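Thread amino acids onto this structure.
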């Protein structure tokens, strides 16, 4: 299973059977100039949209033939199983009733959980739907825009994933100076094992996951950022 990071909360999964799914492509909106580039035009069979905020739902950048999933439910395409789990957005009081769908993806015996902008504390039925997780993709940055460090750490402790991948943070070359986000450096300094990748992608296999939880920090490569965007 190959995972590629395009910055912010955008990831693409490619299964051994050739199925591709891409979560949360980003865009700007009037008054919210967060990104210096258009989301790149890349192939995917499925687009997964966790919630309808500008930095997660650039569906116009996805292939015309791609199917779009926004709702909870069970989906199977080829060798990829997807479970959409409905819950709620994290952050300020005005967002706490805003729907968010977490996506649990499984192929080749590896289970990923992309939380979108979900809150860290969820009820028992959501926990049951999430189940066991090998790779957790979680929002964290030093501005504490969404989850606190303590909430992220508690979530990791509860789920016990083998790999934790930060997302939703400032990245040079992708996020604009006007963006409210910061890098996750202070949170990373609290972690016992951090692996800084030199690339924007990695392969995952059930027999090759670390024995203890590690944080993997991806480095979105220039080929993922081919197109540019201006304010006009």
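Threaded sequence (232 positions):
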């Amino acid at each position: 299973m190959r995972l590629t990071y395009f910055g912010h909360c955008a990831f693409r999964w490619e299964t051994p059977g050739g199925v591709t799914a891409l979560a949360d492509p980003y865009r700007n909106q009037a008054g919210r100039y967060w990104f210096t580039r258009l989301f790149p035009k890349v192939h995917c069979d499925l687009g997964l949209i966790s919630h309808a905020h500008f930095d997660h739902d650039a569906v116009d950048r996805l292939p015309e033939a791609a199917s779009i999933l926004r709702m909870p439910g069970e989906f199977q395409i080829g060798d990829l199983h997807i479970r959409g789990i409905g819950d709620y957005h994290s952050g300020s009081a005005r967002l706490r009733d805003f729907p968010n769908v977490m996506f649990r993806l499984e192929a080749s015996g590896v289970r990923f959980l992309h939380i979108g902008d979900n809150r860290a504390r969820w009820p028992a039925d959501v926990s049951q739907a999430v189940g066991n997780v090998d790779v957790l993709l979680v929002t964290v940055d030093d501005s504490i825009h969404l989850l606190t460090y303590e909430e992220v750490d508690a979530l990791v402790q509860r789920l016990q994933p083998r790999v934790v991948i930060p997302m939703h943070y400032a990245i040079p070359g992708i996020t604009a100076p006007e963006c409210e986000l910061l890098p996750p450096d202070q949170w990373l300094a609290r972690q016992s094992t951090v692996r800084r990748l030199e690339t924007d992608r990695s392969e995952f296999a059930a027999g090759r996951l670390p024995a203890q939880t590690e944080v993997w920090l991806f480095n979105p490569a220039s080929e993922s950022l081919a197109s540019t965007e201006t304010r006009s």
